[in-house]
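=== RUN LOG ===
request id: a7f3
mode: sequence -> structure
chains: 1
length: 166
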Amino acid sequence: MATELETLALNQASGGVPNSALPLVLYHHVSHEENLAEAFEHLFARNGWPPRWRYPVFTYTHFHSNTHEALGVFAGSAKIQFGGEAGPVVDISRGDAVLIPAGVGHKQIEASEDFMCVGAYPDGFSPDKYLDQPGQLAEVKENIAKVPRPGKDPVTGSREGINTLW
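=== RESULT ===
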């Protein structure tokens, strides 16, 4: 089964969530390997996105102003809201990945009991964490403007993904 790419344009601020001019990228059906957590960790690392954690997505709106984030779903399924409190809710499940541009809000709305992700960031970057607070928009927009485009897409490497969409 081939990976299907889908994008979401979340380019307008929502409350205290700045969002991004860069589209969020959804990768459906990346892999169905038995040990999917390790498969995502190896894939991300090979493409310059060292894995940093295994955990579900926080159940409150948050975003990172200093780095992009990749998620690889290795168990279960969830509904994730992107872009702030009025943003779209997307279904993701085992084998899917998501590339969240710096500044794009995200939170888990509901999930299966076994829902888990691998999280990764471009090599050399550690995420900050901001909540939906309108008073911080000017500060975080300055941070986001300094975030470089990664050298490779976390899923597709040197082809497709951010190489054609960003």
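=== NOTES ===
The chain has one domain: 4-165.
The first helix runs from residue 36 to 46.
=== END ===
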